[in-house]
Amino acid sequence: MDNQKKLITPRVIIQILFFIVLIPFLPLLVSWRWNWWEAWAYSLLSVLSFVVSRLFVARRHPDLIAERARYMQHENAQAWDKQLAPLMGMAGILVLLVAGLDELLDWSPSFSLPVKIIALVLIVGGYTLSSYALIENRFFSGMVRLQTDRGQQVVSSGPYRWIRHPGYAGALLVYLGTPLFLDSTLAYLPTLFTIGLCIIRTAMEDRFLQEELEGFGDYAKQVRFRLFPGIW
Fold first, then answer.
1. Is 135 helix (H, G, I), strand (E, B) or coil?
2. Confidence (pTM)
3. pLDDT 10s digits, 36-95
4. Res. 6: pLDDT tops 60
5. Domains of the chain with bracketed CATH
6. From CA 198, how far away is CA 85, in angstroms rounded?
């Protein structure tokens, strides 16, 4: 109980409200189009994905909740990730900001319903894959670091049987589907930048784990692909 109280600090509450409640609704807040059903669906899916995945994690790996609550506070986090992780976060926010402005100012034409259905499948699939990875991996930290304090080991179960970084792969699916679902061609500009950052972070994290985490090199020989099965 004392550990739970330590986790529920004003800082953590503000982070949750900002990143989990405010940011998903950014397209609606920027456009002020409250009848925009796609934005409502996207926002509610984002919040639902977060809540459901954290409920499962809290039951299976309660120490992971504590690990992720200390985001950007780990002294042994890799210096490059202290720059890259926040940059990815800001780029993701920019995608939603541009989508909201696009709707407000009517810059881009609307996509057809079949395209939006495909986009919705990508978003749901992405959230599902990322949540599966989070639930399966007790060491799914918000920062790249060697978690010697938590006895970090290689995880090769669940989605890690297919690709080495399913959390990032799920995020990529969400990135790809979001501009289509929110009718914003212009949002693909920050989206492509975000995807580029995600690929760079995946490559650097993978190299770090192969060099520092015992057994990861052998795992990488068995599961060959980082993000894209059959490609990379």
1. helix
2. 0.90
3. 999 999 999 999 999 899 899 989 998 888 888 777 677 788 999 999 999 999 999 999
4. no
5. 2-222 (1.20.120.1630)
6. 9
